[in-house]
Each structure stands twice: as structure tokens, then as C-alpha cells.
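Side project, low priority. Logging it here so it doesn't get lost.
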Amino acid sequence: MSGTYIPKALRLRIAEEARHRCGYCLTQEVLVGAPMEIDHLVPEALGGQTEAENLWLACSLCNDHKGDRVAALDPETGQVVRLFNPRAQIWGEHFAWTQNGERLVGLTAVGRATVLALNLNRPSLVRSRKLWVLAGWHPPADAPEPSG
């Protein structure tokens, strides 16, 4: 998480654009009962700016796993590819839910690399998704569209 101050109005704008859910695993803020973090898509450590076009919402665990990376290895091709950019790319083109809604599958090199790098099927999240599916809260019916 960045130490750079992000004005409240900008935080609110980013949260609303992201529909108050993580841009990577789509976990809803209301389900976890904790605020999401503002993610620098291009990390500050790599020259990324603190401006709307470079910011998106992420849960703390996805943000922690992402760290200062912008690329990762696609496990299928062995190639290094850019991580998914929730502001510029369409989630449903790169990811899908398994039939039971508990796990994410990468559909593209970007999706596969992001699933692996951000550990989007971490056991604790898969267990939570099971409960959310039973309650009818998951998976989200609408995959977010890019807004930038």
C-alpha cells in the first residue's frame, strides 16, 4: 500500500468506479467488512503516478501479492506478461468462475499470470466464496467494464 496521500474525493471516485470491489478477485467490500485499498496499477516504485488513471480498488491480500509488480509468468506458455489492468481491460475477457463459483480461471496469458501472481484462489478466499455462493452473494453477476 502506498504512503502517498490520496484525497478523500479521489478515493471515493475510485471506489465507485470499481463498484466497491477488488479489481482482481472481485471480492465485495461489503462482504469482507473492511475497506479496500487503493492500488497503483503501475506502482510508485516503478514511476507510477497518484492519479485516477493509475488507481483502482484492491483487497489488501491481492494488493499485497501484487506488490510492485506489473508483470508475471504465464504458467501455460512460460512467457512473462503484463498483469491484468482492471482500469483498461475487461475482466470477463481474462477470467471466468468455475461452475461452482468458488475459483477463478485465467482465460488468457494475462488472466493465468494474474491468477497465479496474486494468488486469486488462495484457500481462505475459496472458503469464503463457498459461503458467499450458498448465501447467493457470489459470484457477481456483472463483471466490471474498464472505465479509463
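Brief comment: Strands lie at 37-40, 55-58, 71-73, 80-82, 95-97, 104-106.
Revisit when time allows.
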